[in-house]
Hints:
The chain is of the alpha+beta class. It has 14 helices and 49 strands. The protein is 15% helix and 32% strand.
Amino acid sequence: MVALPSEWQILGPFPIGTREQEFGADPLEAYGGFASLEYSTSNKYPSELATDGYVGWMTVRAEDGKIGPLEFPNIRCEMNGVEMNGVPFGWSIEQYQCWIRGYVDVAERAKFEIQVQGSSEFYIDRARYHGDAYSIGTTQHIATLDKGRHTIEIRLVHDVRIYGGGVAPPQCQCTVHLQQLNETNPVRIPQDVLLPSLLSGKGFAGSFGRVSVQNLSDTLVRVTSIQIKIFSNDSKELKSSSHMLSSDPIPIYSGQTRPVGIEFSVDSSIAKLDSVRVQVHCMIEGNQTEEIQKDLTVLGIDWNEEAFAYTFIDYDGTVHYAMAKKPQVLDANPDKPVILALHGSGLEASTRFWTDSLPVQKSSWIIFPTGRTSWGFDWHGPSTKNAFAALQSIAGQNEHRWRQITTGWDMAAALKTAEESSWTIGNVKQVLYIGHSNGGQGAWYIATHFPDTAIAVVAASGYIKIQDYVSYANWVSNAHVDPYTKGIMEMSIAEYNNDLHIPNMKGIPILPHTGADDDNVPPLHSRKLMRLLNENTHDPDLVKTSIVPGEKHWWDGVLRNDTVQEFIHRQLESSKAPVSGRYFSVVTTNPAGIGSVKGIQIEQLVIPYRLSKIHVFQHTSEGNLCQFQTLNVSAFTLTEYCTLDLRNGFMIDGTSFTGIEKPRGLFVRNKITGEWRNIPDRETWPVPNERSRWLYGSLHRMYDGTHPLRVVLPTMLDSTDEKAQFQHAALQIAHDWFLYGVGDSEIVEDHAVLERTELSRNDFVVTVYLGRPKQNQALTRLTSKRTNEIGFGEDPPSIQIDDQRYSAKGTGVLFLRPGFHSQELAIVVAGVDADGFNAALRLLPKQAGMMVPEWAVIGPEAKFKGLGGFLEAGYFDNNWRILRH
């Protein structure tokens, strides 16, 4: 055993902006960095947060690794504007960072599990680990520590979104977990196994499960089999079968945790049980074949009384769950809408008070998706895909009468009445979206980006966008970065700006809903979006905000409010497709992150990441053609949602189309003449090496793959230290995707990378290549197939952008490029040295709101200047050339 220190050294606080720390932006780096500074009662460092402009060292006591809540002397928070009245900078001034140092003594060389909850980065003897910022509690790092003293250094950020705001003094805390591993097994199942709910008298609400397996050994292991056995309370084993979703053994790298999906079925006798005991048997193959066992108890629930969890295969092949609340009446109406309810930050979808916040509806099902975790990605990207997969999967399960739940037993047939035996979920393409707080923002996001699925929206206490929730205005970087570079970075998250995409919502009934005294998401957010909606329709009274006097951010009945329920019932009863009127617009900055709008799917932009629009004029008088006027659009599709009357023909920017009975397929603009043409068979478009929306970035797309995220290790290295560095980096990438999205990653060595030839049309693969081509054989092969304007030099190592060469120590590069396959997006992370590589590695986005474009060169000054230390950054055009704005 090892004892954590009872006393820790603290230095700070210093300013830091929302989502800024991954760019560096640490003022102490101007003085050599915290790791090089020794504790001193006299040394002080400049910080505008302090009354006299300087902060120094202090010590705090800790118990069981819990450090804080921290309070700093010499900080007059009210003068900085922390209190809500008269705030000069808003919550952004409450974002601060500090450093924490402690020492642990290890009696003998041993292996430990390590994690810091509440911090996104910490260091063991200067080796950087990615922490558990939200204290989700699902991950642990494995590290071997030699005999002797070891230094733990923690960079702690007071993130308002985690710790709250408007309270003086703002306080944050973290918890250090360090425990010697006494496991004798090479692997373990570190967290509860995911299984669907056991519905009393019916069976399991799904046939899929998830077992997370962590490799504790020093070598690669392969999971060859996972099986579950199910027992009644009297220990009688039920007849069941189970198998992994993967037909091949699953390799797990040393220290890595992978979520393994399983499928199972149970004999119909389970319908008589109110609880069962489950044994999980995991077979692994490494140096020897071993079996790991884990036991758990599953209690039955009454689906007439509470929401239940069902499991499904998500877009990337991992198994996830969503909660469902069945209606009062199960009927066979296939057209009834479904309600999708999006939770707030830090809230599990299974939390009882959340699933109870919406009353049971007469005939419409309510689905509560997870967004993949309690924090997710602000309902962007992976979270949105998860929500849509939850809808599609429950409809699919119902189509098959839930037969996959048990062997030879039909759930629907087990229901009592004849009317109930033919029930359906309804139309999952006709959805009423509801959300609260972050989920309220998510409801705005889905309605502005995927409006063709929305019959109506209730956005309760939802903010406009992250930059307006906790402002980016107080970033350390702002004092160092030029407006052009800052604009380039902001373009990477412009696709998530709900206000910019408001025109896409035209015709959708909206109810903004908020408490009048909300001190978390002020009513100003809802009122502003209401104003923009009404301006867009030129009707000042079209949408009105429901503002409840005396209520704050959350209150009992926030969604049971009479106004909310009357709105819901009215929209469910009408369940009509939104009416667009004779004029509407489609708006986006990135087709990769948006669905069809009024049946129009933008596929390609003339200048990627610039605002693009399609204005549609639907004339009613006979003989007048429907007209499409485009701005910065070079290709779009008319989808199944298109209800435009095009029988008399139509025009796109002056190009006439007639005689097309049911216009579908793709319309592409000639880049020379400007004329448009219809391509019914899109197999011929795009041409090789040309980008469509599938291969647009930004780097946030790294988690959108339909297969496990693949991380490729270099092996052409000069030393064992280099090898250890890259292995450690790969584990941090896999850690982040598992922690923040319960995502799966495959770590492979470069010589083992083969070109994929089996991809289907809907597949999308993301591969991360670590190191320069000289270090990474797979990257060498990839760059030999097609070069681009970002290259590498050796002797000395350098990064080449066009004719500009960067070779200074500490310089790194991160960029997208085409992969081996036409539906593969490659991400390259490299540096001229170890420091440069690590600087580039930090830029891989693991949380929503990080501003990372399609490529960036980061220099050593970023350590304290943040964005001001970026040497270049930008995007690619449709032919993978650097886009010159």
